[in-house]
Amino acid sequence: MTTIDERAEWAVWAWGANNCGQLGCGHRQDLLAPTVLNKSGMVLTSDLEGGLGRCTPTQLTGGGAFSVLLTDSGQVLTCGKNDRSQLGQGPQKGEKSKPRSENMIFSPCTLLDTTPVARVAAGWDFVLALTGSGSILSWGSNSFGQLGRACSEGVKMDSTPQPVICAHSGVSKFVEIAAGLRHALAISECGHTFSWGSGRRGQLGVVNQHGKPLSNSPSPISLFLTECERPSQVVAGMNFSGVLTETGSVYLWGCNKYGQCGVMPTSEVMLFRPTCLKFTKERAKSDIEDTHSKFVSLGAGWTHLILRTDNGQLYSLGRSDLGQLGRSSDTIPPHIPGHVSIKGMVTSHVCSSEHNLALTDKGQVYSWGWNEHGICGTGNENNVFQPQPVSSLVDKTIVGVGCGAGHCFCWTTRHV
């Protein structure tokens, strides 16, 4: 990652869908190319007046028409749609008709009080926040139990961040979180993997007494992966889930309609239990010279998966009709991990619903996939089937990328 000087001043760039002000730029017009957020479009807190200043972003993510920004001080800011209380800023009347003007700029989640947050994850209309002490807070929609806790009787949403309730014995802290469309995953400090929320397509990885997928769970339930490997990362798509282990193994389960779980769709439409992804060295030889690399990070879109190796190479599998895979599936079928060609070593990557961003060791941002609303930042709305550098950012020092369901962010720095 690019070295940051203490004298650097930060800037956040945004592009893509903006129908509810989710880009934080103060209006509701889509942006077809990266646009820097001006001073009035960043934050409202007095200590950050005039933009982010030296309070640096560490994560920018989002769900369906809303966004979540996390700073290095552990502060959470949100903007965009708030019809299910997903902004965590308290109830707002009239939100179902159209968002109020203050929803169009990043505003702090004051209901978090002084709780420092280490990581955030956004589902379609709910948010998870992993605190520095290892607890998980949740807010937004709870129609499918995705908050992992109970709301007030008869209420299916909550604007106030409250702890996820885990009844599993021996679990005191969590270290990783992930949010899908309507379900969530987490890893505990002791190495257990948990899931909750909607599960009708098998995305919870648990079956009932009849061998059918558990339809939903309003609280975290423990999954069995393997006794030999410890989980290190979880991801959640629309209706599928995944776990990466410390040894580089990948376990997938849930909906496999497009081969996103690594199995030929005609043989298995759904995987009810975590299944190890088959990726042999023989397959790798056709793609890269280093056959000894292992997977070190995952990214899940709605129906596709992106995997990164320790030597900075990307692989993809799943749905490909909109360019989500960034490679041809003619020679390597969609359910088999295929190499995504990007110039340079990829240091981080994120998935939107149907498109992707990758950041290289040279600070270059690549995008590919679905491009309606200008999500790929190309200046037009033509789908992108091979990774392309985001041209308007090639002269910038990019240090981080993030995205929501149909919009993108990156953050840069310049010396002052």
Can you offer a commentary on this structure?
- The chain is mostly beta strands.
- The chain has one domain: Regulator of chromosome condensation 1/beta-lactamase-inhibitor protein II (Methylamine Dehydrogenase, Chain H, 7 Propeller), CATH 2.130.10.
- It has one helix and 28 strands.
- The chain has one helix at residues 281-285; strands at residues 8-16, 31-36, 57-62, 66-71, 76-80, 107-108, 117-122, 126-131, 136-141, 157-163, 174-179, 183-188, 193-198, 216-223, 231-236, 240-245, 250-255, 270-276, 295-300, 304-309, 314-318, 338-340, 346-351, 355-360, 365-369, 384-389, 398-403, 407-415.
- The strands form seven sheets. The chain has a four-stranded antiparallel β-sheet, with no helix packed on it. Strands 3-4-5-6 form a four-stranded antiparallel β-sheet, with no helix packed on it. Strands 7-8-9-10 form a four-stranded antiparallel β-sheet, with no helix packed on it.
- Strand 20 (304-309) and strand 21 (314-318) form a beta hairpin.
- The longest helix has 5 residues, at 281-285.
- It starts with 7 loop residues before the first strand and ends with a strand.
- RCC repeats lie at residues 10-73, 74-133, 134-190, 191-247, 248-311, 312-362, 363-414.
- InterPro entries: RCC1-like_dom (IPR058923), RCC1/BLIP-II (IPR009091), Reg_chr_condens (IPR000408), Signaling_Regulatory_Domain (IPR051625).
- This is RCC1-like domain-containing protein.
- Residues 12-410 form the RCC1-like domain.
